[in-house]
Structure formats: structure tokens, C-alpha cells
């Protein structure tokens, strides 16, 4: 079923996110027949495009970044007729009347009142200004049809996040606010719920009795990709852990939902955030490691160090790598550490979750037969490939007893012929349908900030002395290895 008539305004319409992600996502939804019967998209920006040049600009983005290359030209013609450009200075109050007029005009054309969606794909410092000018418009009082989509980062720290939430709450109802975390739109991340709660097989062992520890790795090979300016005020902890990684951790650790209502899922997830042990400032050095890449070589190519990137301070103390050990204080997870790490310019693009089960209680095989517990693990791979693999111990064929690990693999590529949608497609469709399940509620955002604040503060108090401390193409600083090796464990990478 298609969503109801929708009018989508994209602030930052001439920006990078729209070019790379939003427009290709909307176009793919159109190709797949998921866009509403009646819809329009209005890109809002300062640059002087007319409709034609704007459409050409977006089409270039689609040619480069869309997952579909075929069917483009014919369907693009139809789609692009629905796309217009509005040059507007979003800092001027009086300009916002134009938006109200467009809504009225479309309402007449559609013969019904559409969903009105404001997507804020702009730099974080512009968000409060836009929100406070949008809020007073009459159309925003319609809590059923008018929605605002806010991109991460949600604030720069706990205080600014609370302030932003307060501002949003003063203008909109919580159910109108869609805080996007694109990781939650990824197929494999959503599949964690199916794996855990649509099978009776895993859940009985998904706890401290059978699980030794859990790891989440989100490693990237790219550097800061020209975003030095933004990244200097962010760093890996804010950019990846506060949001994506903690959200994924919640999916892995949450209790079973009773139904799939948005608030039921979000309640279960926020329970996890509340149960994560807050790391005291003086314990940070034992539980968190930060890193920054230096210059070097990656796959035969010379790459600059972080401090040599554009718009980055020569003495920058910004973290481009983080590893943290979390504990969840509840009955299910007591004493099961969650090790997470993320970094730029690492050896591989690898986003994986590893559930490491405990060793067999009585290992009757001769010690020389094999390593005892490593193989018992489930790895959910989000990137580069989408798959789930169960690694277990098997007897090698032949005389005598020699054991070695084998993988039972469910791969999306082999199991399905259909192409999986991009995260932004799923999330944009959800916004049009009014389904907030995969979006962050304000209490989740605040709870996640509360967890990382002591780490941020402790790092702010103490400048890093050893930066840069890892080479491009490595798996991060040595201290990150030590963090997990101290517990007699090691980081898992894909074979
Ligand atoms: C974004 C971060 O939210 O996620 C980027 O701002 C990061 O720094 C990106 O590169 C990673 O997303 P993905 O989907 O490529 O894992």
C-alpha cells in the first residue's frame, strides 16, 4: 500500500546529503512503486538554481549514487516533474510564508490535505533557527500530518541535545519529530529483531548463561572525506558511538517486544541505555581508548594523516578511532562485556556484530585437537557483505580427531534475488507512512549522551599525548588491542 499524499520540503536541498542519499532514495522508492500517488518534493537552498538546472544537478547525483542504474531515463522524466527548487534564505522569517503558500496550492491540486514533511538536511548549527521559524507556521500545528525530520548529530553534548529537544518540543509534538539514525534503516540491523524474536532458537541462549561477550566493530577505510571542518568539532565518539553503535547495541541487547508499536520497541531499547553502566570519569582510561590516524600507505596508496587533512588543526586532538568496553547491569547481561570500536582509515570497511558464546563446559577432546572456545560464535555482518554466519567446531574428515571451525552462512546475496533498499529509502517511506519505530525518541538521545559524557569530559581534561597513534590500514592503536586482551579476548574480524 502506498503512503498518503505527501509534500516533502528538503532544507539543504542543494547540499551533499540530498545529492548523495535523499534524492536517490526517493527516486528508488518511485521506481519501486512506493511513492504516494500524489506527491511533490521541494528542494530549498540558497544557491541560484532554476527547476531545470536543479533537476539536472539531482540527476547527476542519481547517476553516481543510486543503487539502480537501469530504468533511469524514462522514469526520471516523470519523477523529476514532481521536483522543484525554492531559493530561500532560511534565516529570514518572512520567507517561511512561501512554504505555507506552497502547501495551500498543493492541497488544492491534490484535492486533499497531504502530509507535510520538513526534512532538515542542513548543518547542525542551522537546525535551531529553522525549527524556531517553522514551528509558528499554522501548518505545523497539524500534529497528524506535519512532520519534521532531523538529521544527526542531535546536539554536541548532553546540554545542547537537551536544549535542542526542548526547542523541538516547544514547536512540535514528539510524534511529529523524526530523528534519523540511518543505521536503523539498514536491512541487517532490522534483521536483528527477526533473528532474535521470530525464531525460538537463539533467544534461550541469548544471555549471560551462554554468551561470553559481544563485540561491535564499525571500521571504515575512508578518512574524513573533506569534512574536516565538521569532524574537528565531532570526533569518532560523537559521530559514531553516541548514535549508530549504541543503537545497534540496543537492538542486540533489548528484551523481547510484546508488539511492534513504535513506542514498545523504543521503550525496550531505552531500557538498555538506562542499564548500561555509566563509566566514572576516573575509570575512563581503563574502559575507553581513543586514536587518531597518522599519514601512511593504504593498499598501495599514500594517504595523508588526519592532521594533514583540510580544515584540521595541525595539533588536533580529535579522535578518529574509539574503542569502549560497556557493561549492562541487568539480569540478562550482568558480567557480559560489550566491546565496541570504530575508526576511520582502518584496514577494511567492516561493520560487524559478534556474539561470542561460552566454551563447552566439559571439553572431552584431547587438548591438541583444537582451540576450545573461539569457534562458538555468531557474526552479523552489515558491511561489506550482508550476511549472518554461525561459526562452530567441526571434525575434519580423516582418521584421528582434529577439529576446526566451519561457517554456516546465510547471505542476502544468495538467499534473495531482490535488491535490498538503501537505509534512507526505508526511513523516508516510514516518515511518509508515519511510522516512527526506527527513529530515535528524545529520551534515547539524552540517555545515549549521558553515557558518553564522562568519556568526552575526561578526554577534554587530558589532551592526547601520543596522537597520531595508529597507521592507516591498521586496526587502530595498540591500546585498543590491550583493552580487550587484558580480559583474555581479542577483536574479531571477518575471515
Ligand atoms: C555517518 C558518519 O553518520 O556514518 C560518517 O557521520 C560515517 O562519518 C558514516 O562515515 C558511516 O555510515 P555507513 O553507512 O557507511 O557505515
List the helices and strands and how they pair.
Layout: E1 6-11, H1 16-31, E2 39-45, H2 51-65, H3 72-80, E3 83-87, H4 97-110, E4 115-120, H5 127-134, E5 146-150, H6 158-171, E6 177-179, H7 187-197, E7 211-219, H8 228-232, H9 236-253, H10 262-275, H11 284-287, E8 288-291, E9 296-298, E10 301-303, E11 321-326, E12 338-343, E13 350-357, E14 377-383, E15 387-395, E16 403-411, H12 412-415, H13 423-433, H14 442-461, H15 478-485
Bound molecules: 6-O-phosphono-beta-D-glucopyranose (BG6).
Residues 220, 239, 351, 383 line the site of 6-O-phosphono-beta-D-glucopyranose.
Can you describe what's shown?
The protein has 495 residues and is α/β, with parallel strands linked by helices. The chain is built from 15 helices and 16 strands. Helix 1 packs across helix 13, helix 6 runs antiparallel to helix 14 (442-461) and helix 10 (262-275) packs parallel to helix 14 (442-461). The mean pLDDT is 95. It binds 6-O-phosphono-beta-D-glucopyranose (BG6). The site of 6-O-phosphono-beta-D-glucopyranose (BG6) has 4 residues, from loops.
Entry summary:
This is Glucose-6-phosphate 1-dehydrogenase. The longest helix is centred in the C-terminal third of the chain and has 20 residues, at 442-461.
Biggest sheet, in brief?
8 strands, mixed
Morphology:
globular
Strand order of the largest sheet: 8-11-12-7-13-14-15-16
How many distinct helices?
15
**Fraction in beta strands:** 15-25%
Q: Mean of the pLDDT scores?
A: 95
**What percentage of residues falls in helices of 4 or more residues?**
25-40%
Number of strands: 16
> From the alpha-carbon coordinates, what is the Rg to the nearest angstrom?
24 Å
Listed once per kind, the bound small molecules are: 6-O-phosphono-beta-D-glucopyranose
Distance between the termini: 41 Å
Which regions are unreliable across 5 or more consecutive residues at pLDDT < 50?
none
Structural category? alpha/beta
Amino acid at each position: 500500500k502506498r503512503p498518503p499524499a505527501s509534500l516533502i520540503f528538503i532544507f539543504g536541498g542543494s547540499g551533499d546529503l540530498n545529492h548523495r542519499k535523499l534524492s536517490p532514495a526517493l527516486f528508488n522508492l518511485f521506481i519501486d512503486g512506493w511513492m504516494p500517488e500524489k506527491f511533490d518534493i521541494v528542494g530549498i537552498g540558497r544557491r541560484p538554481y532554476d527547476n531545470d538546472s536543479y533537476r539536472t544537478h539531482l540527476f547527476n547525483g542519481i547517476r553516481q549514487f543510486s543503487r539502480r542504474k537501469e530504468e533511469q531515463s524514462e522514469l526520471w522524466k516523470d519523477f523529476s516533474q514532481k521536483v522543484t527548487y525554492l531559493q530561500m534564505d532560511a534565516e529570514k522569517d518572512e520567507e517561511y510564508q512561501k512554504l505555507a503558500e506552497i502547501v495551500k496550492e498543493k492541497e488544492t491540486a491534490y484535492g486533499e490535505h497531504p502530509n507535510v514533511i520538513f526534512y532538515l538536511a542542513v548543518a547542525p548549527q542551522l537546525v535551531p533557527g529553522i525549527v524556531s521559524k517553522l514551528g509558528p507556521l499554522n501548518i505545523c500545528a497539524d500534529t497528524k500530518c506535519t512532520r519534521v525530520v532531523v538529521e544527526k548529530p542531535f546536539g554536541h553534548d548532553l546540554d545542547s541535545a537537551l536544549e535542542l529537544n526542548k526547542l523541538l518540543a516547544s514547536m512540535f509534538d514528539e510524534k511529529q519529530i523524526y530523528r534519523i539514525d540511518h543505521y536503523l534503516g539498514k536491512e541487517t540491523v532490522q534483521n536483528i529483531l527477526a533473528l532474535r524474536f521470530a525464531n525460538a532458537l537463539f533467544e534461550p541462549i541469548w544471555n549471560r548463561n551462554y554468551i561470553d561477550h559481544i563485540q561491535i566493530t564499525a571500521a571504515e577505510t575512508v578518512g574524513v572525506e573533506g569534512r574536516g571542518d565538521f569532524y574537528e568539532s565531532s570526533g569518532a565518539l560523537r559521530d559514531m558511538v553516541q548514535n549508530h553503535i549504541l543503537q545497534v547495541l540496543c537492538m542486540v541487547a533489548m528484551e523481547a517486544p510484546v508488539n511492534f508499536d513504535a513506542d514498545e520497541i523504543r521503550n525496550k531499547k531505552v531500557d538498555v541505555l538506562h542499564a548500561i553502566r555509566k563509566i566514572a570519569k576516573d575509570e575512563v582510561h581503563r574502559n575507553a581508548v581513543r586514536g587518531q590516524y597518522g599519514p601512511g600507505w593504504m593498499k598501495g596508496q599514500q594517504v595523508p594523516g588526519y592532521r594533514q587533512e583540510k580544515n584540521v588543526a595541525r595539533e588536533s586532538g580529535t579522535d578518529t578511532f574509539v574503542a569502549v568496553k560497556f557493561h549492562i547491569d541487568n539480569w540478562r547481561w550482568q558480567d557480559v562485556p560489550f566491546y565496541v570500536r570504530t575508526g576511520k582509515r582502518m584496514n577494511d570497511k567492516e561493520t560487524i556484530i559478534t556474539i561470542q558464546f561460552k566454551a563447552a563446559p566439559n571439553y572431552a577432546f584431547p587438548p591438541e585437537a583444537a582451540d576450545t572456545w573461539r569457534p562458538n560464535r555468531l557474526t552479523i555482518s552489515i558491511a561489506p557483505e550482508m550476511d549472518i554466519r554461525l561459526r562452530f567446531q567441526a571434525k575434519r574428515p580423516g582418521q584421528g580427531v582434529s577439529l576446526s571451525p566451519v561457517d554456516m552462512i546465510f547471505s542476502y546475496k544468495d538467499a534473495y534475488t531482490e535488491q535490498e533498499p538503501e537505509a534512507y529509502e526505508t526511513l523516508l517511506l516510514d516518515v511518509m507512512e508515519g511510522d516512527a519505530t526506527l527513529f530515535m525518541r528524545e529520551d534515547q538521545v539524552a540517555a545515549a549522551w549521558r553515557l558518553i559524557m564522562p568519556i568526552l569530559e575526561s578526554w577534554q581534561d587530558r589532551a592526547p599525548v601520543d596522537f597520531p597513534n595508529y597507521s592507516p590500514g591498521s586496526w587502530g592503536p595498540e591500546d585498543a588491542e590491550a583493552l580487550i586482551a587484558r580480559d583474555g579476548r581479542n577483536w574479531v574480524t571477518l575471515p
